[in-house]
Amino acid sequence: MEVEHDYDRALIDGSRHVMIAASMESSSTTSTASSSVSKEALEENTREAVERLRDSVRAAPIDVVRARFIACIVPTLDVLRLRYQALNVALGKPHEDAPPKVVARRRVTAERALETTRAALEKMMGDSIEEDVSVRIFSALVGALSLPRIGAYESVCEEVLLTLRAFCASARGAEDSSTTAFQSERLAPMVGFTISTLLAISHEEASAGALGSKSLRSSALLTLERVIHFIGDADALAFFLPGVVSGLTKVLVAGSGIRANEGAGPGGTASDGVEYALISLSSILTLVLNDNLYESHVSGGENKTNKADTLQDALKEIVSRSSREDDKISLQKLQTSVLNDQMSTKDISERSFNVKRD
Questions:
Q1: Are 164 and 171 in contact (CB under 8 A)?
Q2: Is the pTM of this model over 0.85?
Q3: Of residues 167, 166, 175, the one with CA closest to residue 138
Q4: Which of 90, 265, 267, 302 has minimal CB crowding within 10 Å?
């Protein structure tokens, strides 16, 4: 009991330190008065506070983290937003106030905040998260995807995608899932922005060819598939179906290298990227067009029927049937061809024996 109390105290103290550090940094940013503490020192203090909280969350037992989840996640999200606002300015409009060292320092703090969020979410797996807290987490992560895709964007984006997948997994695994809010018209714009951004990242990396990142493309496509599973509602996803199909087709075309000067380099061809694109396509099609095929995914495989469990099984059956029919047609053509040859040979033979001689 004493050890558990120490973990609990560590989480409380860590959350408080993050909150104070973020508040001091935010005040120094908005205040015009001179301060005895430099901005660099305040930013470094925030980073260290976030790292301590991350380590405390990782070390604490699951039940302790669940009890202090909101206390840990709220100040961490505040730091995340603070850092992304600063990075948006620094990456979008480089100037003397944001040299490379400052940008790198802010990027590291943002990544540490994402790691802290992900560590807390992983320990919430199977437990319910309040709806307003879920929306707040999702919106903070989605906001991070709007960062300009230059400089050190890839490392930050990778962390965002990892954390977004952890969020989808934890929320989806809860018995009283909070996904209902994300199926509503109110959050449709945010869901649509997320889907379109993930598709844009995938397409840009695939189109860049040798300059693109296979890892980032695969991660974005995998995250897209998890988001589709997370929403898990045919009516909510039907609105996005045309855009998703069109976007994934562009990704596959760019990745195949069949178009000149597009993809076809080491970053443009990768089996895992193609696989994740097809899985995402399969997920949204099976959900929107046929609920029964998708039911095994949503229920975790509990509902077993004699029908095909996934669209892949159905497609395999179609391909197999088509292959059998093609073989049958080919055999018929071959038999017809042989018969025609035989008939032609017979006619020639008969004509050769009936030649009139003078």
A1: no
A2: no
A3: 167
A4: 302
Q: What is the C-alpha radius of gyration for the chain, rounded to an integer number of angstroms? A: 29
First vs last C-alpha separation in the chain: 122
Task: Record the tokens describing residue 218, joined without a space.
Answer: 């695969």
Residue 175 has pLDDT above 80, yes or no: no
In 3-state terms the chain splits into helix, strand, coil percentages (rounded to 5) of: 75, 0, 25
The identity of residue 339, as a single letter, is L
CA distance 2 to 252: 56
Q: How far apart are CA 258 and CA 263, in angstroms?
A: 8
- At position 117, the amino acid (one-letter code) is T
Report the length, in residues, of the chain.
Answer: 358
Q: What are phi and psi of 135, to 5 degrees?
A: -65, -40
pLDDT exceeds 50 at position 318? no
Q: Contact 308/295 with Cβ under 8 angstroms?
A: no
Q: What pLDDT does residue 352 have?
A: 46
- Find out whether 69 and 20 touch, Cβ atoms under 8 Å: no
Which has the closest alpha carbon to 230: 185, 282, 165?
165
Q: How many CB atoms lie within 10 A of CB 52?
A: 17
- pLDDT value at residue 92: 57
* HSE value, Cβ hemisphere, 13 Å, CA-based, for 127: 15
Half-sphere exposure of 292 (CA within 13 A, CB side): 7
Q: How far apart are CA 61 and CA 339, in angstroms?
A: 78
Cα–Cα dist 273/263, whole Å: 13
Contact criterion met (CB below 8 Å) for 105 and 131:
no
Residue among 350, 193, 222, 205 at smallest CA distance from 263: 205
Q: How far apart are CA 201 and CA 156, in angstroms?
A: 13
Q: Is 145 within 8 Å of 220 (Cβ atoms)?
A: no
Supply 59's token pair.
């070390």
Q: Which of 21-35, 43-57, 210-224, 291-305 has the lowest mean pLDDT?
A: 291-305
Angle at Cα 206 formed by Cα 200 and Cα 212, nearest 5°?
A: 105
